[in-house]
Specification:
This protein is of the alpha/beta class. 36% of the residues lie in helices and 18% in strands. The protein has 26 helices and 31 strands. It has an 8-stranded mixed beta sheet. The chain has a 6-stranded parallel beta sheet with strand order 10-16-14-11-13-12. The protein has a 6-stranded mixed beta sheet with strand order 19-30-28-23-22-21. It is globular.
Length: 850
């Protein structure tokens, strides 16, 4: 009986290639299969679909009524096994990396429509990380979709020839070459789409091959393709098509030419699925969900970060999110080097008028970056592991004439270095540079062994003789070519190097390009990705301002992904969720045109913890805060219902202080202008709304938290605590008047005014306990910080605070509202007001059985 069932289940799976699940069951009934066997088959298939839907990774927000028909690869498949075999040959780990790729690509395919459905028009989005293997993921999705009967595959590969060619090469290698008889190609390595005669011949029933087309997002090209597809309209009714939009936020959203052409192509394809792939989905998530556009209405998949991936957070650190213990948030690796402000005019024209005739100067930091690149390349040659290529990126301007101006001074630097390799002083300088860098970033922390300078110096002549200076831009014919042997190259470029394109073996980046939007900035991070065999060697030279922007961006990224994951647990669908994107005072989330349908999202301080982590260090600014804090303590002493002197623990608590004491303090305390979450007007406005509308936040507890080991700091006579130590994030050549301490409050401090044993409470536990003990009371905490604040031992990424006066940090803890909340505005999100949702009609459940 079991054998009969197993055989019948295999028949069911074979039929699934030709029919959707519901139709397949009908076929079994027509074949006379017993009802109980059919039920067992349906039960097993349902268990398989549940396994796919409930995969731990990747997370997905899905339109609720999507039918999970795909349950994974089958023994007769050809395309996916070929990819798996190629990846195993490339050294991929079968139990971790390949299984993760298999699961994530299976999940995406399971969200497509069955290829034999009569008509469908799916819209989905896959969110990955920059340089994290998105191409491999969508190639795997294409392979599995091909194995199940999808016929036409259109890949929209960015806007530059370099990325289109790179993508075509990858797809040919992994899809076409292993099974050449199964594929027809409409594009080639050096040939974007050009119309062929008789398009119907590709899609008629006599042609069983899959059709591959890799095109740029270029209006002329796409118009040709759309017209060509239109000529084959009669044959496309039976042609399931998958459109992969690589870099889906670029050129696709809110463009007058590209966007309508993509929609036009989809109208020519009655059975089509559009899946966008991007690491910067800000624009895609701000499309109006109610419009007939490319909003991902059917699914959003959040790919997991692959093991060993260097991302924004890993390199730059980030700030704590709501509910996180700040002490557990990493500072990032010590791989960022500061380019002084004074250097910027030397490598980038100040204005457009200065572009003509611009001559760059090889500054000390640029020379140091180039010399370190040669040293790192030599060290990699000693190790003889990992990627054979070695690349350095220099990106200072979008202007091609500026790129070209770097060629002469860089070649001069290269030639001079080759001539001075025997010079004792030059070798001594290189040795010092290598020793300093390898001391700051220990190879052992990455599972590598430090290469001594004496071992690598013998490789330097070979490195210098093989090093090329490449101007890679739209006006240059030179290109980075990784297909003809190992490369050592210093690439100077702009937009052609700033999105999608993989810079093989990238170890050093020099980046001072001014940008204005999150997505542009994130996509320029070509240094993100995998660094197998040299994870200790990457370095990035950039301005302190850019480093701070990337740190903010790491926080935005993490929060955005957390939002997506939260919507999954709350059973939201893509049409009912709106991911909040945290704003920044100096950066747009995306281009203005892409934000035209966005709304300012309401975000509340309720249940949140707000703390200062940016400070000026000049005496005048700091004295203002010292005065404001002393006035606050004086008012708290006069107005508190009860004062608790816990000075033995470095603490004071002033209980039940009127709210106007707090708002008066907020009016006089200086928050740093770079801290959008620390907006005194917004916070005061929120407090006043809560008082007026809910009667909450009328009373506050004011706490002082000091260190029992610190030098005494006196607020007013009789109220003294020890100074806290809070060192700054270390940035070479940083603005001495700017300090980022990253973390002010500990989790314990947020419970300083709670009764009972709070030491083991989690962040959520503190919120819950505050709801019980102090449901309407806010908490304001003052921190006196020692102006010198030397970092503790082992804190390599920290430097002394070195302020001109002692610093006063402020933390605010807001109770979670019991009945609604007033809001503050510091996020934007998609506008859901136009989305029409219909409740399920349940009336038939109560009606008479017809």
């Amino acid at each position: 009986m079991t054998d009969d069932f197993d055989g019948m289940y295999e028949t069911f799976k074979a039929l699934l290639d030709a029919f959707p699940p519901s139709e397949t069951v009908k076929r079994l009934e027509l074949m006379g299969v017993p009802t109980e066997i059919i039920q067992q088959i349906r039960d097993r298939h349902e268990r398989q679909t549940i396994r796919i839907r409930e995969l731990e990774e990747p997370h997905a927000v899905v339109l609720g009524n999507r039918d999970t028909w795909y349950t994974g690869p089958q023994p007769r498949d050809k395309c996916w096994p070929a990819i798996e075999s190629l990846l195993l040959k490339d050294g991929w780990d079968k139990d971790a990396a390949i299984r993760s790729l298999d699961d994530s690509s299976t999940r995406v395919v399971s969200l497509l429509n069955h290829p034999k459905e009569k008509a469908f028009s799916t819209r989905g989005l896959v969110v990955g990380y920059v340089q994290s293997g998105k191409t491999t993921n969508f190639t795997s999705v294409m392979a599995k979709a091909a194995d199940r009967g999808y016929k036409l595959f259109i890949v929209l590969a960015g806007i530059h020839n370099g990325l289109r060619r790179q993508t075509q090469a990858r797809l040919v290698q992994q899809l076409v070459e292993p099974n050449p008889s199964m594929w027809s190609q409409l594009t080639g390595l050096d040939k974007d789409f050009t119309p062929t005669e008789n398009p119907a011949s590709y899609f008629g029933k006599s042609n069983k091959t899959h059709v591959l087309c890799v095109v740029k997002k270029n209006a002329t090209v796409l118009r040709k393709l759309a017209t060509w597809l239109d000529k084959a309209a009669d044959y496309l009714k039976d042609c399931p098509a998958l459109i992969i939009d690589d870099e889906a936020d670029q050129a696709t959203v809110a463009t007058k030419s590209i966007n309508p052409l993509i929609l036009s192509m989809m109208q020519s394809l009655p059975r089509s699925a559009y899946v966008g792939y991007t690491a910067s989905p800000f624009a895609n998530l701000l499309i109006d969900p109610s419009a007939e556009d490319l909003y991902p209405r059917d699914f959003v998949v959040n790919l997991p970060k692959p093991q060993g991936h260097f991302g924004t957070e890993v390199l730059f650190g980030r700030y704590a999110l709501d509910g996180e213990d700040p002490d557990q948030v990493d500072d990032g690796h010590d791989m960022i080097r500061s380019v002084p402000k004074d250097d910027v005019p030397c490598v980038r024209p100040k204005t457009k008028a200065d572009v003509e005739g611009f001559e760059p100067v090889i500054t000390d930091t640029l020379r140091r970056a180039v010399e370190y690149f040669w040293l790192a390349t030599a060290a990699r040659r000693v190790r003889r592991t990992g990627n054979p290529h070695n690349t350095m990126l220099i990106h200072t301007s979008v202007n091609t004439s500026v790129h070209n101006s770097f060629e002469r001074p860089l070649k001069h630097l290269l030639n001079r270095a080759a001539l001075t390799l025997t010079d004792t002083a030059a070798l001594s300088r290189l040795r010092d540079l290598w020793d300093q860098e390898t001391e700051r970033v220990a190879a052992e922390d990455f599972g590598e062994t430090k290469v001594p300078f004496d071992d690598l110096v013998g490789e330097l002549p070979g490195v210098l003789s093989s090093c090329r200076i490449v101007m890679d831009n739209s006006s240059s014919e030179a290109r980075l070519d990784y297909e003809n042997g190992a490369v050592v190259a210093i690439a100077v470029g702009g937009n052609t190097l700033s999105r999608g394109l993989t810079l093989e073996g990238l170890s050093v980046s020099y980046f001072v390009r001014a940008v204005s939007a999150y997505d542009t900035l994130l996509q320029m991070g070509r240094w993100f990705g995998f660094r197998n065999g040299y994870a200790d060697l990457p370095r990035i030279w950039m301005t302190d301002e850019l480093a701070e922007w990337f740190r903010h961006l790491a926080t935005v990224e993490t929060e955005m992904r957390r939002d997506i994951d939260i919507y999954i647990t709350e059973s939201e669908t893509p049409r009912t969720f709106a991911v909040r994107l945290r704003t920044h005072p100096a950066l747009r989330v995306t281009a203005a045109a892409k934000m035209r349908d966005a709304v300012t999202a309401a975000s509340s301080y309720g249940g949140k913890r707000v703390q200062t982590h940016y400070f000026h260090t000049n005496a005048e600014w700091l004295r203002g805060n010292l005065t404001a804090s002393r006035e606050l303590v004086t008012a708290a002493l006069s107005n508190a219902v009860r004062v608790e002197d816990r000075s033995a623990e470095g603490r004071y608590i002033f209980r039940d202080v009127p709210y106007d004491v707090v708002t008066d303090f907020l009016a006089s305390y200086n928050f740093h202008e770079k801290s959008p979450e620390n907006d005194a007007d917004l916070i005061s406005g929120y407090i006043q709304k809560r008082v007026a509308t809910a009667g909450s936040l009328r009373r506050w507890n004011i706490a002082i938290v000091g260190s029992t080991a610190g030098e005494p700091f006196t607020f007013v006579p009789g109220v003294s605590v020890g100074r806290n130590l809070r060192s700054r994030v270390a940035v070479t050549n940083s603005d001495p008047d700017f300090a980022d301490i990253k973390t002010l409050m500990s989790r314990r401090d947020a419970a300083v005014d709670l009764a009972g044993d709070t030491a083991k409470l989690t962040e959520k536990g503190i919120i819950d306990e505050r709801r019980v003990q102090l449901p309407d009371t806010g908490l304001l905490v003052l921190y006196p910080i020692d102006k010198t604040s030397e970092p503790g031992p082992g804190k390599k990424l920290r430097a002394p605070l070195n302020a001109e006066e002692d610093v006063i940090g402020v933390g605010l803890v807001f109770p979670e509202p019991q009945h609604g909340d007033s809001t503050v505005e510091k996020y934007i999100s998609a506008d859901l007001s136009g989305v029409q949702l219909e409740d399920e009609d349940l009336s038939l459940l109560d009606g008479e059985d017809a």
